[in-house]
Design a protein that fits this description.
Length: about 450
Protein backbone atom coordinates (compact mmCIF):
# COMPACT_ATOMS: atom_id res chain seq x y z
CA UNK A 1 0.00 0.00 0.00
CA UNK A 2 1.02 3.64 -0.34
CA UNK A 3 1.35 4.92 3.19
CA UNK A 4 2.20 8.18 4.92
CA UNK A 5 4.57 6.82 7.55
CA UNK A 6 4.84 10.24 9.20
CA UNK A 7 1.22 9.79 10.31
CA UNK A 8 1.67 6.38 11.92
CA UNK A 9 5.25 6.24 13.24
CA UNK A 10 5.03 8.13 16.53
CA UNK A 11 7.69 9.02 19.10
CA UNK A 12 7.51 5.65 20.86
CA UNK A 13 5.54 3.29 18.64
CA UNK A 14 3.62 2.69 15.43
CA UNK A 15 -0.07 3.52 15.60
CA UNK A 16 -2.82 4.18 13.07
CA UNK A 17 -6.20 3.23 11.61
CA UNK A 18 -6.47 -0.21 9.97
CA UNK A 19 -6.71 -0.65 6.99
CA UNK A 20 -6.82 3.06 6.02
CA UNK A 21 -3.37 4.04 7.30
CA UNK A 22 -1.64 0.65 7.48
CA UNK A 23 -2.37 -3.02 6.85
CA UNK A 24 -0.79 -6.48 6.76
CA UNK A 25 1.32 -5.69 3.68
CA UNK A 26 2.96 -2.87 5.63
CA UNK A 27 3.28 -5.07 8.74
CA UNK A 28 5.42 -7.48 6.67
CA UNK A 29 7.81 -4.60 5.93
CA UNK A 30 7.91 -3.52 9.58
CA UNK A 31 8.82 -7.09 10.54
CA UNK A 32 11.66 -7.14 8.03
CA UNK A 33 12.91 -3.72 9.15
CA UNK A 34 12.75 -4.72 12.83
CA UNK A 35 14.86 -7.78 12.02
CA UNK A 36 17.43 -5.67 10.15
CA UNK A 37 17.70 -2.86 12.72
CA UNK A 38 17.94 -5.10 15.78
CA UNK A 39 20.30 -7.51 14.03
CA UNK A 40 18.63 -10.28 16.02
CA UNK A 41 18.67 -13.95 15.08
CA UNK A 42 15.43 -14.49 17.02
CA UNK A 43 12.54 -12.30 18.22
CA UNK A 44 9.28 -12.70 20.17
CA UNK A 45 5.86 -11.28 19.20
CA UNK A 46 2.49 -10.96 20.91
CA UNK A 47 -0.87 -9.30 20.27
CA UNK A 48 -4.00 -8.02 21.96
CA UNK A 49 -7.67 -8.85 21.31
CA UNK A 50 -8.36 -6.34 18.51
CA UNK A 51 -9.88 -7.97 15.40
CA UNK A 52 -6.93 -6.89 13.24
CA UNK A 53 -4.21 -7.96 15.73
CA UNK A 54 -3.68 -11.66 14.82
CA UNK A 55 -3.30 -10.91 11.10
CA UNK A 56 -0.95 -7.97 11.61
CA UNK A 57 1.14 -9.91 14.10
CA UNK A 58 1.49 -12.92 11.79
CA UNK A 59 2.36 -10.66 8.83
CA UNK A 60 5.12 -9.03 10.91
CA UNK A 61 6.41 -12.51 11.83
CA UNK A 62 6.48 -13.50 8.14
CA UNK A 63 8.46 -10.36 7.31
CA UNK A 64 11.01 -11.08 10.04
CA UNK A 65 11.27 -14.80 9.16
CA UNK A 66 11.93 -13.90 5.51
CA UNK A 67 15.04 -12.09 6.79
CA UNK A 68 16.28 -15.31 8.41
CA UNK A 69 15.00 -14.55 11.92
CA UNK A 70 13.35 -17.21 14.12
CA UNK A 71 10.08 -15.90 15.56
CA UNK A 72 8.45 -17.05 18.80
CA UNK A 73 4.77 -16.08 18.87
CA UNK A 74 3.25 -15.88 22.36
CA UNK A 75 -0.16 -15.02 20.90
CA UNK A 76 -2.79 -13.24 23.02
CA UNK A 77 -1.05 -11.28 25.78
CA UNK A 78 -0.88 -8.02 27.67
CA UNK A 79 1.89 -5.58 26.80
CA UNK A 80 3.70 -6.29 30.06
CA UNK A 81 3.45 -10.02 29.30
CA UNK A 82 5.33 -9.31 26.04
CA UNK A 83 7.92 -7.36 28.06
CA UNK A 84 8.21 -10.38 30.37
CA UNK A 85 8.87 -12.63 27.37
CA UNK A 86 11.45 -10.20 25.96
CA UNK A 87 13.20 -10.08 29.35
CA UNK A 88 13.00 -13.75 30.28
CA UNK A 89 13.94 -15.02 26.81
CA UNK A 90 16.42 -12.15 26.23
CA UNK A 91 14.93 -11.42 22.80
CA UNK A 92 13.77 -8.29 20.98
CA UNK A 93 9.96 -8.11 21.03
CA UNK A 94 7.00 -6.61 19.18
CA UNK A 95 3.55 -6.14 20.71
CA UNK A 96 0.53 -5.51 18.49
CA UNK A 97 -1.84 -3.17 20.29
CA UNK A 98 -3.23 0.34 20.17
CA UNK A 99 -3.60 0.39 23.96
CA UNK A 100 -6.69 2.48 24.85
CA UNK A 101 -7.35 3.83 21.33
CA UNK A 102 -10.70 3.06 19.62
CA UNK A 103 -11.31 -0.27 17.88
CA UNK A 104 -10.31 0.80 14.35
CA UNK A 105 -6.75 1.58 15.51
CA UNK A 106 -3.83 -0.78 15.88
CA UNK A 107 -0.12 -0.38 16.46
CA UNK A 108 3.24 -1.92 17.34
CA UNK A 109 5.22 -1.38 20.55
CA UNK A 110 8.77 -2.60 19.95
CA UNK A 111 11.65 -3.34 22.31
CA UNK A 112 15.15 -4.74 22.16
CA UNK A 113 16.27 -7.78 24.16
CA UNK A 114 15.61 -7.38 27.86
CA UNK A 115 12.57 -5.13 27.16
CA UNK A 116 14.80 -2.12 26.36
CA UNK A 117 12.61 0.46 24.60
CA UNK A 118 12.69 1.23 20.88
CA UNK A 119 11.82 4.87 20.21
CA UNK A 120 12.73 7.53 17.66
CA UNK A 121 16.30 7.83 18.98
CA UNK A 122 16.80 4.10 19.64
CA UNK A 123 15.89 2.47 16.32
CA UNK A 124 12.39 3.58 15.36
CA UNK A 125 13.60 6.29 12.98
CA UNK A 126 15.82 3.72 11.20
CA UNK A 127 12.92 1.26 10.98
CA UNK A 128 10.73 3.95 9.43
CA UNK A 129 13.43 4.85 6.87
CA UNK A 130 13.84 1.21 5.84
CA UNK A 131 10.09 0.64 5.51
CA UNK A 132 9.75 3.83 3.45
CA UNK A 133 12.56 2.77 1.12
CA UNK A 134 10.85 -0.59 0.58
CA UNK A 135 7.45 1.01 0.01
CA UNK A 136 9.12 3.08 -2.72
CA UNK A 137 11.25 0.29 -4.22
CA UNK A 138 9.25 -2.93 -3.85
CA UNK A 139 10.47 -4.65 -0.71
CA UNK A 140 13.61 -6.20 0.78
CA UNK A 141 15.55 -9.13 -0.59
CA UNK A 142 14.93 -12.30 1.42
CA UNK A 143 17.67 -14.06 3.37
CA UNK A 144 19.29 -17.20 1.95
CA UNK A 145 17.68 -19.27 4.74
CA UNK A 146 14.22 -18.41 6.01
CA UNK A 147 13.63 -18.29 9.76
CA UNK A 148 11.09 -20.39 11.63
CA UNK A 149 7.81 -19.33 13.27
CA UNK A 150 6.88 -21.22 16.44
CA UNK A 151 4.35 -20.74 19.24
CA UNK A 152 4.95 -20.60 23.00
CA UNK A 153 2.57 -19.95 25.92
CA UNK A 154 4.14 -17.66 28.55
CA UNK A 155 1.07 -16.75 30.65
CA UNK A 156 1.77 -19.10 33.59
CA UNK A 157 5.47 -18.14 33.68
CA UNK A 158 4.60 -14.43 33.54
CA UNK A 159 2.12 -14.80 36.41
CA UNK A 160 4.57 -16.80 38.52
CA UNK A 161 7.30 -14.21 37.94
CA UNK A 162 5.05 -11.34 39.08
CA UNK A 163 3.92 -13.24 42.18
CA UNK A 164 7.56 -13.97 43.06
CA UNK A 165 8.22 -10.22 43.32
CA UNK A 166 5.56 -9.44 45.95
CA UNK A 167 4.98 -11.26 49.25
CA UNK A 168 1.28 -12.13 49.22
CA UNK A 169 1.51 -15.20 51.48
CA UNK A 170 0.00 -13.67 54.61
CA UNK A 171 -2.55 -11.17 53.29
CA UNK A 172 -6.09 -11.21 54.69
CA UNK A 173 -8.99 -12.17 52.41
CA UNK A 174 -10.05 -9.27 50.17
CA UNK A 175 -12.96 -8.66 47.82
CA UNK A 176 -11.77 -6.96 44.64
CA UNK A 177 -13.75 -5.80 41.62
CA UNK A 178 -11.69 -5.76 38.41
CA UNK A 179 -12.85 -3.94 35.27
CA UNK A 180 -10.85 -5.28 32.32
CA UNK A 181 -12.71 -3.08 29.81
CA UNK A 182 -12.93 -6.07 27.41
CA UNK A 183 -9.15 -5.78 27.14
CA UNK A 184 -6.23 -8.03 27.98
CA UNK A 185 -6.76 -7.85 31.74
CA UNK A 186 -9.55 -10.35 31.14
CA UNK A 187 -6.87 -12.74 29.88
CA UNK A 188 -4.15 -12.15 32.51
CA UNK A 189 -5.99 -11.41 35.78
CA UNK A 190 -7.50 -14.90 36.35
CA UNK A 191 -4.05 -16.52 36.07
CA UNK A 192 -2.11 -13.88 38.02
CA UNK A 193 -4.66 -13.78 40.86
CA UNK A 194 -5.10 -17.58 40.99
CA UNK A 195 -4.47 -19.03 44.44
CA UNK A 196 -4.58 -15.68 46.26
CA UNK A 197 -7.13 -15.17 49.08
CA UNK A 198 -9.27 -12.92 46.90
CA UNK A 199 -12.94 -12.88 46.05
CA UNK A 200 -12.72 -11.66 42.46
CA UNK A 201 -15.70 -9.85 40.94
CA UNK A 202 -14.95 -9.67 37.20
CA UNK A 203 -16.34 -6.94 34.95
CA UNK A 204 -16.07 -7.00 31.15
CA UNK A 205 -13.54 -9.87 31.06
CA UNK A 206 -14.75 -11.02 27.62
CA UNK A 207 -12.00 -10.21 25.12
CA UNK A 208 -13.60 -7.86 22.60
CA UNK A 209 -11.53 -5.35 20.65
CA UNK A 210 -14.65 -3.40 19.66
CA UNK A 211 -14.98 -2.27 23.32
CA UNK A 212 -18.77 -2.68 23.61
CA UNK A 213 -19.06 -1.39 27.21
CA UNK A 214 -16.73 1.59 27.42
CA UNK A 215 -13.34 2.75 26.14
CA UNK A 216 -10.50 0.87 27.81
CA UNK A 217 -8.93 4.08 29.15
CA UNK A 218 -9.41 4.27 32.93
CA UNK A 219 -7.83 7.73 33.18
CA UNK A 220 -11.03 9.16 31.67
CA UNK A 221 -13.47 9.41 34.62
CA UNK A 222 -16.37 8.34 32.37
CA UNK A 223 -14.77 4.92 31.95
CA UNK A 224 -14.62 4.01 35.65
CA UNK A 225 -18.23 4.90 36.54
CA UNK A 226 -19.34 1.26 36.22
CA UNK A 227 -16.43 0.11 38.41
CA UNK A 228 -17.16 2.70 41.10
CA UNK A 229 -20.83 1.69 41.23
CA UNK A 230 -20.02 -2.03 41.40
CA UNK A 231 -17.48 -1.57 44.23
CA UNK A 232 -20.15 0.16 46.31
CA UNK A 233 -22.83 -2.41 45.44
CA UNK A 234 -20.55 -5.34 46.30
CA UNK A 235 -19.14 -3.79 49.48
CA UNK A 236 -15.73 -4.57 47.99
CA UNK A 237 -12.41 -3.63 49.54
CA UNK A 238 -11.22 -1.99 46.32
CA UNK A 239 -11.62 -1.82 42.56
CA UNK A 240 -8.98 -2.07 39.84
CA UNK A 241 -9.34 -1.01 36.19
CA UNK A 242 -6.92 -1.90 33.41
CA UNK A 243 -6.49 -0.23 30.03
CA UNK A 244 -6.82 -2.11 26.74
CA UNK A 245 -3.39 -3.74 26.70
CA UNK A 246 -3.37 -4.04 30.52
CA UNK A 247 -0.05 -2.31 31.10
CA UNK A 248 -1.68 0.45 33.20
CA UNK A 249 -3.83 0.00 36.29
CA UNK A 250 -6.12 2.46 38.02
CA UNK A 251 -7.40 1.96 41.58
CA UNK A 252 -10.58 3.01 43.42
CA UNK A 253 -11.05 2.64 47.17
CA UNK A 254 -13.87 0.96 49.12
CA UNK A 255 -16.10 4.02 48.61
CA UNK A 256 -15.52 3.92 44.85
CA UNK A 257 -13.39 7.07 45.05
CA UNK A 258 -10.41 7.20 42.66
CA UNK A 259 -6.94 6.82 44.19
CA UNK A 260 -4.54 9.11 42.34
CA UNK A 261 -1.68 7.43 40.45
CA UNK A 262 0.66 9.69 42.46
CA UNK A 263 -0.59 8.10 45.71
CA UNK A 264 -0.08 4.64 44.19
CA UNK A 265 3.43 5.70 43.10
CA UNK A 266 4.24 6.83 46.64
CA UNK A 267 2.79 3.67 48.21
CA UNK A 268 4.69 1.33 45.88
CA UNK A 269 7.86 3.41 46.25
CA UNK A 270 7.75 3.00 50.03
CA UNK A 271 7.35 -0.77 49.63
CA UNK A 272 10.14 -1.09 47.07
CA UNK A 273 12.46 0.96 49.30
CA UNK A 274 11.67 -1.31 52.26
CA UNK A 275 12.41 -4.32 50.06
CA UNK A 276 15.79 -2.80 49.13
CA UNK A 277 16.86 -1.95 52.68
CA UNK A 278 15.61 1.63 52.69
CA UNK A 279 17.93 2.73 49.90
CA UNK A 280 17.49 3.39 46.21
CA UNK A 281 16.58 5.86 43.50
CA UNK A 282 12.90 6.38 42.70
CA UNK A 283 11.96 8.07 39.40
CA UNK A 284 8.89 10.31 39.14
CA UNK A 285 7.86 12.57 36.31
CA UNK A 286 7.48 16.27 36.90
CA UNK A 287 3.69 16.27 37.16
CA UNK A 288 3.35 13.66 39.86
CA UNK A 289 2.35 15.06 43.24
CA UNK A 290 4.75 16.68 45.68
CA UNK A 291 3.75 13.72 47.89
CA UNK A 292 5.96 11.36 45.85
CA UNK A 293 9.42 12.89 46.50
CA UNK A 294 8.39 13.60 50.12
CA UNK A 295 7.48 9.96 50.77
CA UNK A 296 10.61 8.74 48.97
CA UNK A 297 12.85 10.89 51.19
CA UNK A 298 10.95 9.88 54.34
CA UNK A 299 11.63 6.24 53.47
CA UNK A 300 15.36 6.74 52.86
CA UNK A 301 15.26 6.92 49.08
CA UNK A 302 16.49 9.42 46.51
CA UNK A 303 13.80 10.95 44.25
CA UNK A 304 14.77 11.84 40.68
CA UNK A 305 12.47 14.05 38.60
CA UNK A 306 12.15 13.46 34.84
CA UNK A 307 10.22 14.54 31.80
CA UNK A 308 6.88 12.89 31.01
CA UNK A 309 7.03 9.78 28.80
CA UNK A 310 8.12 6.19 29.10
CA UNK A 311 11.27 6.57 27.00
CA UNK A 312 12.58 9.25 29.40
CA UNK A 313 11.62 7.22 32.48
CA UNK A 314 13.19 4.00 31.15
CA UNK A 315 16.36 5.80 30.10
CA UNK A 316 16.70 7.40 33.53
CA UNK A 317 15.92 4.07 35.24
CA UNK A 318 18.81 2.48 33.36
CA UNK A 319 21.18 5.43 33.89
CA UNK A 320 20.56 5.79 37.63
CA UNK A 321 19.95 2.15 38.55
CA UNK A 322 16.56 3.18 39.96
CA UNK A 323 14.49 0.51 41.68
CA UNK A 324 11.08 1.95 40.75
CA UNK A 325 9.44 4.71 38.74
CA UNK A 326 5.90 6.06 38.47
CA UNK A 327 3.93 8.43 36.26
CA UNK A 328 0.72 10.41 36.68
CA UNK A 329 -0.73 8.33 33.80
CA UNK A 330 -0.66 5.12 35.91
CA UNK A 331 2.44 3.64 34.29
CA UNK A 332 4.65 1.93 36.89
CA UNK A 333 8.22 0.79 36.15
CA UNK A 334 10.23 -1.78 38.11
CA UNK A 335 13.94 -2.62 38.12
CA UNK A 336 12.91 -6.23 38.91
CA UNK A 337 10.89 -6.21 35.65
CA UNK A 338 13.69 -5.14 33.28
CA UNK A 339 12.87 -1.44 33.97
CA UNK A 340 9.64 -1.99 32.02
CA UNK A 341 6.16 -0.87 33.04
CA UNK A 342 3.65 -3.30 34.48
CA UNK A 343 0.32 -2.23 35.94
CA UNK A 344 -0.25 -5.79 37.14
CA UNK A 345 2.76 -5.71 39.47
CA UNK A 346 1.60 -2.35 40.86
CA UNK A 347 -1.84 -3.91 41.48
CA UNK A 348 -0.23 -6.79 43.39
CA UNK A 349 1.64 -4.28 45.56
CA UNK A 350 -1.65 -2.51 46.38
CA UNK A 351 -3.28 -5.85 47.30
CA UNK A 352 -0.29 -6.78 49.47
CA UNK A 353 -0.26 -3.40 51.24
CA UNK A 354 -4.02 -3.44 51.86
CA UNK A 355 -4.11 -7.11 52.84
CA UNK A 356 -1.15 -6.74 55.19
CA UNK A 357 -3.07 -4.50 57.60
CA UNK A 358 -6.64 -4.21 58.87
CA UNK A 359 -7.71 -0.72 57.79
CA UNK A 360 -9.58 0.26 54.61
CA UNK A 361 -7.80 1.42 51.46
CA UNK A 362 -8.99 5.03 51.89
CA UNK A 363 -7.18 5.25 55.25
CA UNK A 364 -4.08 3.50 53.89
CA UNK A 365 -3.61 5.87 50.95
CA UNK A 366 -4.47 9.05 52.88
CA UNK A 367 -0.85 9.28 54.06
CA UNK A 368 0.28 9.30 50.41
CA UNK A 369 -2.29 11.82 49.14
CA UNK A 370 -1.40 15.11 50.80
CA UNK A 371 -2.30 17.82 48.31
CA UNK A 372 -5.17 19.07 46.15
CA UNK A 373 -4.61 18.37 42.44
CA UNK A 374 -6.40 19.59 39.33
CA UNK A 375 -5.85 16.51 37.19
CA UNK A 376 -4.78 17.08 33.58
CA UNK A 377 -6.77 19.81 31.79
CA UNK A 378 -6.38 20.10 28.02
CA UNK A 379 -6.92 23.36 26.11
CA UNK A 380 -6.92 23.71 22.32
CA UNK A 381 -4.72 26.65 21.30
CA UNK A 382 -3.64 28.23 18.00
CA UNK A 383 -0.09 28.99 19.12
CA UNK A 384 1.47 26.67 21.71
CA UNK A 385 4.79 28.55 21.81
CA UNK A 386 3.09 31.94 22.11
CA UNK A 387 0.84 30.84 24.95
CA UNK A 388 3.77 29.32 26.86
CA UNK A 389 5.69 32.58 26.42
CA UNK A 390 2.69 34.53 27.76
CA UNK A 391 2.58 32.33 30.88
CA UNK A 392 6.31 32.74 31.42
CA UNK A 393 6.03 36.53 31.07
CA UNK A 394 3.15 36.65 33.56
CA UNK A 395 5.08 34.87 36.33
CA UNK A 396 8.75 35.61 35.65
CA UNK A 397 10.27 37.95 38.23
CA UNK A 398 7.52 37.52 40.81
CA UNK A 399 8.88 37.20 44.32
CA UNK A 400 9.00 33.63 45.63
CA UNK A 401 8.29 32.11 42.20
CA UNK A 402 10.56 29.56 40.54
CA UNK A 403 10.41 28.60 36.85
CA UNK A 404 11.87 25.63 35.03
CA UNK A 405 11.58 24.34 31.48
CA UNK A 406 12.52 20.66 31.83
CA UNK A 407 9.26 19.70 30.08
CA UNK A 408 7.05 22.56 28.98
CA UNK A 409 6.96 25.18 31.74
CA UNK A 410 6.71 24.59 35.49
CA UNK A 411 5.88 27.49 37.82
CA UNK A 412 6.31 26.81 41.55
CA UNK A 413 5.74 28.74 44.78
CA UNK A 414 5.96 27.70 48.44
CA UNK A 415 2.49 26.19 48.58
CA UNK A 416 1.53 25.49 44.93
CA UNK A 417 2.87 24.61 41.49
CA UNK A 418 1.60 24.09 37.98
CA UNK A 419 3.03 22.70 34.76
CA UNK A 420 1.95 23.45 31.19
CA UNK A 421 3.16 21.07 28.44
CA UNK A 422 2.44 21.11 24.70
CA UNK A 423 1.06 17.95 23.14
CA UNK A 424 3.39 16.43 20.54
CA UNK A 425 0.55 15.30 18.31
CA UNK A 426 -2.33 17.80 18.75
CA UNK A 427 -2.70 21.61 19.06
CA UNK A 428 -3.16 21.29 22.84
CA UNK A 429 -1.61 22.60 26.01
CA UNK A 430 -1.89 20.30 29.04
CA UNK A 431 -2.21 21.90 32.48
CA UNK A 432 -1.57 20.17 35.81
CA UNK A 433 -1.83 22.17 39.03
CA UNK A 434 -1.40 21.28 42.71
CA UNK A 435 -1.58 23.17 46.00
CA UNK A 436 -1.72 22.60 49.74
CA UNK A 437 -5.49 23.14 49.77
CA UNK A 438 -8.40 23.04 47.33
CA UNK A 439 -9.07 26.81 47.39
CA UNK A 440 -5.48 27.71 46.48
CA UNK A 441 -5.38 25.03 43.79
CA UNK A 442 -8.58 26.35 42.16
CA UNK A 443 -7.20 29.91 42.17
CA UNK A 444 -3.86 28.84 40.64
CA UNK A 445 -5.59 26.60 38.07
CA UNK A 446 -8.04 29.30 36.97
CA UNK A 447 -5.34 31.98 36.71
CA UNK A 448 -3.23 29.70 34.50
CA UNK A 449 -6.19 28.70 32.34
CA UNK A 450 -7.13 32.37 31.79
CA UNK A 451 -3.68 32.98 30.25
CA UNK A 452 -3.64 29.70 28.28
CA UNK A 453 -7.06 30.37 26.75
CA UNK A 454 -6.31 34.03 26.14
Amino acid sequence: MTADLSQIVKAYDVRGVVPDQWDESLAVLFGAAFARVTGARAIVTGHDMRPSSPGLSRAFARGAAAQGVDVTEIGLCSTDQLYYASGALDLPGAMFTASHNPAQYNGIKMCRAGAAPVGQDTGLAEIRELVQSWVDSGGPAPADTEGTIAQRDTLEDYAAHLRSLVDLASIRPLKVVVDAGNGMGGHTVPTVFAGLPLTLVPMYFELDGTFPNHEANPLDPANIVDLQKRVREEGADLGIAFDGDADRCFVVDEHGDPVSPSAITALVASRELAKHGGKGVIIHNLITSWSVPEVVKENGGTPVRTRVGHSFIKAEMARSGAIFGGEHSAHYYFKDFWNADTGMLAALHVLAALGGQEGPLSALVAQYDRYAGSGEINSTVDDQTGRLAAIKAAYEGREGIELDELDGLTIAAADWWFNVRPSNTEPLLRLNAEAKDETTMAKVRDEALAIIRG
